[in-house]
Amino acid sequence: MSAPATSWVVDLRPGEWHTQVAGRVATGDRFAGLYSTRRQDAAQLHALLVGDGAVSCLRTLLTPDADGSLSYRSLTPQVPAAFWYERAMHDLSGVLPVGHPRLDPLLLARQPGHPSPRPGYAAAETLEKRRHSRATERHGPVDVTGGGVFTLPLGPVRSGVVESIEFLIETPGEDIPHLNIRPHYKHRGVAKRFETLPVADGILIAERVEGVASVAHALAFTHAVETLGQVTPPRRAGLIRVIHAELERIANHLDVAMRLCDAAGLAVPFSRFGWHKESVLRLISRLCGNRFGRSVVCVGGVRAEPTLSPAVLCGQLAAIVQRIRADREALMVDASFLDRLRGTGRLDPSLAASHGALGPVGRAAGLADDARRRPYDGYTELPTVAGTTVDGGGDVLARLRVRWAEIETSVELIEAACDRLKTLSDPAIATRVPVSDGFALGWAEAPQGEVLYALEIRDGVIGRCFARTASFHNMLLFHDVFASDVFTDFPFIEASFGLCYAGVAM
């Protein structure tokens, strides 16, 4: 099994760093993330870029200004995709992007005087808890004015089992001319929870960054650790990893289909696709003992062989998929259902390309990017993932069609991986990985899109771990898909994005 695609790191002076990041994005590289690591009074900025089959990190060190603050020239005017990343970095690290167009709190609505958590600095203060006092409620921003316009707060708590997030919908009653997103209610301090943990325990946090994508996050984390240790897992482990990653993808895509049916008020298909999702989760549980595939992936391979043989697994999956296909065909000729999806929540392909939209959201707008095309684990010996795209201009219907196609691709990959496991004589499922200090990148393709991990090991423990989710990256685009839609289209658009809000707030 060959090693995954390359990654590299470049250290630059602040001015040169800004020029290089903006220049590389302008010439075709995809902006993939930005974060800060605090080092005593200084801060090291990391910009993640993807291009030419490689993931790179451009770094620079910020030292305090004369007044003791940490600041730099904002990337957002030249790189709009950095808009949320710079807001998040300001919340968590206190770094000021000078010239940022809107530096409202995003992940952490700190009260005046509260210190920032400063990820990467183990001795940093924690946010103090105010006792016997009431925190001031901050009113959301107002961007649309005029007669009859009002702000409708949706969330953070809604009916049903929905993750907490607040949408501030500015509307005259039906149209949605503007939408603000406040995800900080679900902030869990994930970046700080990684710090000082032994490397083997870091995977427990990674699996819980986005619970519905536990396997993908575990893979991205372990890929970074394995890169530092210069170790490639055994072939058998790589194929088992593929099986679990693709079953996770199928379950998530079925969840989106189920939620779309619920938005349309179609009780029978809602129940049917809920049953199919449950069947896949139960199959995962029979394979490893956990419905979300947790504790399967370990550094250097996997913890155990699947409890079902490849033949039995393929047989049970085939039965589930046969039922899925029958219900899919019935659903996709339902005129009332398709009318609610067609043309709704359209993401302009040019905007998707400039932002670097990930996963099904990007592929529905014509972008073929898929982290599995920078092969890792068993994907190196399986049929190349084409990067499914559809014609349709990036609307809700196009995003659903991408998911149907990806389910079929996942089934093919699982069957191919099982065929190879049947003939593989080497029983090894894990390799010892030495813990090595240093910095490395790891990635995997989650159901929501590419997951990127930037990991720094210091003195044998985790010093800093930045988990970049596709949900966080794509959520910014949610502002821009309501151009001709009304309030009743909201649940369709939200479901079609398929994002995990825990992966947005972190």
Automatic annotation (TrEMBL):
The keyword Transferase does not apply. One of its GO terms (molecular function) is NADH dehydrogenase (ubiquinone) activity. Keywords: NAD, Oxidoreductase. Residues 276-423 form the NADH-quinone oxidoreductase subunit D domain. SUPFAM superfamilies: HydB/Nqo4-like, Nqo5-like. InterPro entries: ComplexI_49kDa-like, NADH_Q_OxRdtase_suD, NADH_quin_OxRdtase_su_C/D-like, NADH_UbQ_OxRdtase_30kDa_su, NiFe-Hase_large. Residues 65-115 form the NADH:ubiquinone oxidoreductase 30kDa subunit domain. It holds the Pfam family Complex1_30kDa. This is Hydrogenase large subunit. It comes from Mycobacterium botniense.
